[in-house]
Predict the 3D structure of the following.
Amino acid sequence: MSESPLPYVHGRSDRESIRLYDQASGLGLLLHEGTLYPPGSTVLEAGCGVGAQTILLAGNSPQAQFVSIDISPESLARAQERVLKAGYPNVTFLQADICSMKFPAETFDHVFVCFTLEHIHNPLVALENLMTVLRPGGTITVIEGDHGSAIFYPDTPDAHLVIDCLVILQRQSGGNALIGRELEHLLEESGFVDVYISPKQTYASQNVPHSSEAVKKIFIAMIEGVREQAIAAGLADPDAWDRGVRDLYRTTEKNGMFCYTFFKAVGVKPR
Amino acid sequence: MSESPLPYVHGRSDRESIRLYDQASGLGLLLHEGTLYPPGSTVLEAGCGVGAQTILLAGNSPQAQFVSIDISPESLARAQERVLKAGYPNVTFLQADICSMKFPAETFDHVFVCFTLEHIHNPLVALENLMTVLRPGGTITVIEGDHGSAIFYPDTPDAHLVIDCLVILQRQSGGNALIGRELEHLLEESGFVDVYISPKQTYASQNVPHSSEAVKKIFIAMIEGVREQAIAAGLADPDAWDRGVRDLYRTTEKNGMFCYTFFKAVGVKPR
């Protein structure tokens, strides 16, 4: 159903899979709050990746039916294995590209998209395609991060440098690591109505149990994943890179803090 | 009780007083949530300014007694007038400098500090003084912004320039407009225990009633207040400044958004 996968800025290594699972488990309560689908409804998860959100969707709405698509067959295989292991029977996996899906119009009652639009060259085209396969009155839920929301102490130029490297590399891959702030206008420009944004802010420090571990496993691991790309692209020299990553780790230690905001948007397809 | 006031980066004009009142009224619910003092307790408000928080404190805890101090006699006079007009009898005003207060040790049951540490050259000295006048087991509540938390769309370099101008001017005045992220380590280094930080994030857009008006009256008005200082200091030329301010206004219009985080910290004086 799709062409070969586009380059994925975070890579598809085992470590990246672990990162995505950690991300979903630690953030699940925060990000999925309020996302419950009625019994019998059919939900498209567009861009399921390795299934990190899929297991939360399927577990939170056990009587809804999910169709989870991804462009990468390898990711789909991992997602399927994960969901089977969790014992959820309500997910169907399918290889498909959000920008060229072949579902009939108005197939789905709801659409869920998480950490996917950030990797898509033209998110408006993706949203218009999702609008087409959604029934009138159905909802779309979009969750994305925004690396510009990272606030941390100690604050150093090198730490900003390594974050900026990921933002630039993602832009060079056709994505947008600062897309969280754009969800409202993207949904509105695509024609969704009743658009509502809930910022989901996380605050990590040694006074908040497990929070600093999450920053290391989720955010810093993601930054570390692009080290070679950033150096090869001439965006950072190895010493500055290593200082920046060390400085990020410093924010997870005594007297440090790290704050990050995810944006969750819900919109409705007009009747 | 104090020397002549230090320069205040935002100025003490009528427009600035209006801004501070708007700030308190619009943000009151968000920032004061959970800040209720028991009947009979004595609370020091350190740095009351023109009374924007004072009326919320006095109204929310009508049976607590407040002592509200400020370094500026003009601000105190405005605060007193405001509180009298609101009809609250439970506030005593006093001119004093946080860094050289003359209260006996352990005078107060609780201390409240809002938008004040950001203007103080050495916040650790201020916090140590506040610790001294607080009884063991009493709490300190500190609320501060952090201009590095501003996320907005459309995002432009000129908009960042004008925000950075205020950050630099405030630093030149001995303050710190990025102090929100530092509250946890400052309270811990001052010896407070059980330190807990609640980030208070605001999201403004045309889909959130009154929110864009608040961004204009509170944040953009504060930026506009340092125009002449910024240009005189050579931090921005007039054209770039005006473009930056126009770009900030653009974030309050159709399809724009503006997000800002205040940090609220509560700590306890060890018994």
Residues 14-32 of chain B form the longest helix (19 residues).
